[in-house]
Amino acid sequence: MSRPSPFSKPTTGFIRRSLSRPFNRAGCRRAGGFTLLEVLVVIVIVATLSGMSLLAINQAFDRRYHSDADRLQMWLQQLSEQAALSGGAYGVMHVGDERDADRDDAASSAVPEQLQAVVYYQNSWWVATSPAPFELSEEAQLRWDVPGESQFGQRRDQLASIAGVGADEDAKAPILPIIALLPDGYMEPADGRLEMRFATIDSAFEFFWDDQSARIGMRKVAL
What is the pTM of this model? Predict the structure, then answer.
């Protein structure tokens, strides 16, 4: 008589015992929701992603503002180079801003805020055809730090070669730039400053004349 094989034993009792076992408490909690540790991990991940997104957005805005400042620096430097090449003075006028609010003509309200290049020719300032006016973006604001309302008007005797002798005799208002870039590598007034601000950041870009490099300098300053 052969002995039964151990593998031929019925397993119904084992299956019945396995199905009859209740779930443990840990399994019940996992089936019903998340643990506190899992919730904290999700919160940390969401906060990290949100911080990275906010940082990327801020960097994108900073790059855009810095790009506007770079364009203005290049525009001013172009005026300085044209003055050196042509042997004449180039100036900068700020038009289309609040200083034209007292004019009641329709043309003043239609002019966007911009910087206009002017050139000195035959003892008078004339609007330059090149470079094109520098138009400001809607977020940008310009502030000038120049001694006096018009350095050229106050020092006409010292700047006769720039200001245009006899311009006051004209029936129309004379063209007097805020600053002038001279062909010998200087800016007048030398201590003039131009500041570009944006409402959404707490810093500004300052433009000035750098005597060491004889170029328009730019630096970012905190407000």
Answer: 0.63
